[in-house]
């Protein structure tokens, strides 16, 4: 299994737009083959910090996800929402 954690620090003024657009990505991603989980969580200690936790069956499923037009569109627009560069961590889990 492949685990992806993506942390987003969002500008307060862009919170609503971020949540609207990332929900489209979540809905699309959950329909993809190989998606085991794709959930967004909000920090209780850092205001407007969100963490996406993705679980993929294997590397091939993740690579296919990276070709998803909804993901590509979101990635092209993420700079409009964030106050800092997103942090993405990828790990293989046995």
TrEMBL record:
Residues annotated as signal peptide: none
GO molecular function terms noted in the UniProt entry: monooxygenase activity
Organism of origin: Exiguobacterium sp. (strain ATCC BAA-1283 / AT1b)
Keyword entries, A-Z: Monooxygenase, Oxidoreductase
Keyword Oxidoreductase: yes
Name of one Pfam family that matches: ABM
InterPro entries: ABM_dom, AI-2_Isomerase_LsrG, Dimeric_a/b-barrel
Annotated ABM domain residues: 2-91
Keyword Oxidoreductase (UniProt): yes
Name by which UniProt lists this protein: Antibiotic biosynthesis monooxygenase
Domain of life: Bacteria
């Amino acid at each position: 299994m492949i685990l992806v954690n993506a942390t987003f620090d969002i500008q307060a003024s862009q919170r609503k737009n971020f949540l609207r657009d990332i929900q489209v990505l979540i809905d699309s991603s959950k329909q993809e083959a190989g998606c085991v989980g794709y959930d967004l969580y909000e920090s209780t200690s850092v205001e407007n910090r969100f963490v996406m936790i993705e679980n993929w069956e294997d590397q091939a499923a993740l690579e296919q996800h990276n070709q998803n037009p909804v993901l590509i569109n979101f990635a092209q627009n993420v700079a409009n929402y964030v106050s800092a560069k997103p942090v993405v961590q990828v790990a293989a889990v046995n």
